Amino acid sequence: MEHIKTFATQTLESRLGTLILEGPMSYEALEDMSLHPGLKAFRPAEQQFKALLNIAKMPEGRIIVARLDNLIVGYVTILYPDPLERWSEAKMPDLIELGAIEVIAECRGSGVGKALVRLSMSDDSLEDFIVITTEYYWHWDLKSTGLSVWDYRKMMEKMMNTGGLIEYTTDDPEITAHPANCLMARIGNRVPQESIEAFDRIRFYNRYRTS
């Protein structure tokens, strides 16, 4: 599967000033930046920055950032699903994952997350792909936001909707482990029917395995 990446950029006003949103970032461009220490939802910021650099090297890897000068204050990652997850078992070259989205607390409420998702999905080449995201409540920053699980879920759903992702049902055990968890996806308008059917089978893997 050919991975064509079309660079896009825009500006957005935030509480910290004018942010530049851009991507997909090359490894070389990303290397000259630094990650805000508040971006630590998945691992310490220093380790997360190394992970972003590694994703930028991947043929399919896409990093879209929100930055203040050379300081990254938010990002979205897109890459193939983790080999240990069920979504990789179908070995679909046209299924990729919006794996992470994170914005520092100081920029929340300015629409940065929605703008990042929208920009990340604006590339026409993604019309050839099914883009999924898996939302798990244990990754959500409930403490600092003060939101309930359900209010946070609504916020994440609206954010993903701005990029065209909608909820899909699944029997994946991690998703069904809590009613707030969900699978969302955007099926590009050039995705062939056989890929859509393969996606349906992997969504209901347990049903098809026992039938």
TrEMBL record:
InterPro entries documented for this protein: AcuA, Acyl_CoA_acyltransferase, GNAT_dom
Domain N-acetyltransferase: 25-189
GO annotation, biological process: acetoin catabolic process
Molecular-function annotations in GO: acetoin dehydrogenase (NAD+) activity; acyltransferase activity, transferring groups other than amino-acyl groups
Pfam families documented for this protein: Acetyltransf_1
Domain of life per record: Bacteria
Protein name: Acetoin dehydrogenase
Taxonomic lineage from the root: Bacteria, Bacillati, Bacillota, Bacilli, Bacillales
